[in-house]
Write a structure and sequence with these properties.
YpoC, two-stranded antiparallel sheet, mainly alpha, YpoC family protein, globular, 61% helix, 2 strands, 175 residues
């Protein structure tokens, strides 16, 4: 079982098309899958429950997602500067998924769903999160290809990184 359909909780626009059966490969290494497919780790854990779970190795995998963002934000900024919104769209969607994953993983939880209503409700329970995350995520979901969404995404990544690092320092001090 290498190629599997994306399960319903994650088969949600803008990440995956709900009108066609989306398929992802479980045969790729975890980091490559995270780079390639939104919510790869959560989907993989459904099909392989005893497999690797990044939300249990928070420092490694949240840092990995933050690094992915840093590598992509320059490309996105250039696309928006050149007013190439359509070209920026797939990168924005992937980085929105990465932000959501980083947000839940920083709280040692898997992403519960890709559905905005569920994410909004569940984000209230998170301890490590940017200010007013529910409204800001809703704003980006409305039009992920807009420049204003890019600005919000950038700010949320910056805030999450700061709060995550503070959390790591507190955890290390208490140990």
């Amino acid at each position: 079982m290498n190629d599997v359909p994306v399960p319903d909780p994650y088969c949600e626009a803008p990440f995956y098309s709900s009108s066609v059966t989306e398929v992802i490969s479980l045969s790729v290494p975890i980091e490559e899958g995270i780079r390639k497919y939104p919510f790869y780790a959560e989907i993989r854990s459904i099909y392989r429950p005893v497999d690797h779970k990044p939300w249990t190795e928070v420092e490694k995998y949240v840092s990995f997602l933050l690094q992915e963002w840093k590598q992509e934000k320059g490309k996105l900024a250039a696309l928006y500067q050149e007013r190439k919104r359509a070209e920026a769209s797939p990168f924005m969607v992937k980085q929105l998924a990465n932000l959501i994953s980083a947000l839940w993983w920083a709280n040692e939880k898997p992403v519960p769903s890709a559905k905005p209503s569920i994410l909004s409700k569940e984000s209230e329970r998170l301890h490590i999160k940017p200010f007013n995350i529910e409204d800001r995520l809703a704003f980006v979901f409305e039009a992920p290809d807009h420049h204003a969404s890019f600005v919000q995404l950038k700010e949320m990544f910056d805030e999450l990184e700061k709060r995550f690092k503070v959390s790591l320092l507190k955890t290390k001090k208490s140990n």
